[in-house]
Specification:
Blueprint lengths: L2 H19 L1 E10 L1 E7 L7 E6 L6 E7 L4 E8 L6 E8 L4 E3 L5 E3 L6 E3 L9 E5 L16 E4 L8 E10 L6 H28 L4
Antiparallel strand pairs: 1-4, 1-6, 2-3, 2-5, 5-12, 6-8, 7-12, 9-12, 10-11
């Protein structure tokens, strides 16, 4: 197999490896009233939409793959009327990433989360109680330790973004990055091999 063939095979293998072994983030959540889940590489900018829901009476579940450097889980919640809030439990499939609290699992609560209003201003988080509290009742797929979190006034028509960091520890590189790295390494290997062959061809025969 020549160097170019090796390059293609290695790049394909890296792409397959990254897809098969990337850390997965799973969330079980509900919000009163609407929510959208994003994954971003910046705490200050909304990332890629991965899930959304509009019925607070139903706990939703999503799973998404993580890759590359530190990521941010962002959940945008809008309260249409009455009490509002976010309730959820989140977990990571392996040690490739850790939540900002240092663990592989995180519930909604007063720690591990930052809440910002529609203008991007950080707002204090308050708890209306844990899973099961009135008026929402219990959601079996969500941890009993998870808190309904919102701002103190339960303002109607307000939108807040809840953010937590997913810190890369032993994360799989993004597939494209890994493939490019392999390409560079193999290309240098190919150059050295070709140079060696060229030198041998110029040597006088005995």
């Amino acid at each position: 197999m020549n160097a170019r063939s090796l390059l293609g095979a290695a790049a394909a293998a890296l792409l397959t490896f990254g897809s098969a072994h990337a850390t997965s983030l799973t969330g079980h959540l509900t919000a009163d009233n609407d929510f959208s889940v994003y994954i971003s590489n910046s705490a200050a900018q909304l990332g890629t939409l991965v899930y959304s829901g509009t019925d607070w009476t139903t706990a939703e579940t999503f799973t998404t793959a993580l890759s590359g450097s530190t990521q941010y889980l962002q959940i945008v919640v809008t309260n249409q009327y009455g009490p509002g809030g976010l309730l959820g439990s989140f977990g990571l499939s392996d040690s490739g990433y850790l939540f900002s609290t240092g663990g592989s699992a995180l519930d909604t609560g007063l720690t591990g989360w930052t809440m910002t209003n529609a203008g991007g201003v950080v707002t204090p988080i308050t708890s209306a109680g844990t899973n099961g509290v009135w008026p929402w009742g219990n959601f079996s797929s969500i941890s009993s330790q998870a808190n309904w979190i919102w701002e103190a006034g339960y303002c109607e028509g307000c939108t807040y973004t809840f953010t937590t960091a997913l810190n890369a520890v032993n994360a799989v590189p993004e597939p494209a990055t890994g493939a490019l790295l392999a390409a560079g390494l193999l290309d240098r290997k190919s150059t050295r091999l070709n140079s060696s062959h060229s030198q041998q061809s110029r040597m006088p025969s005995s």
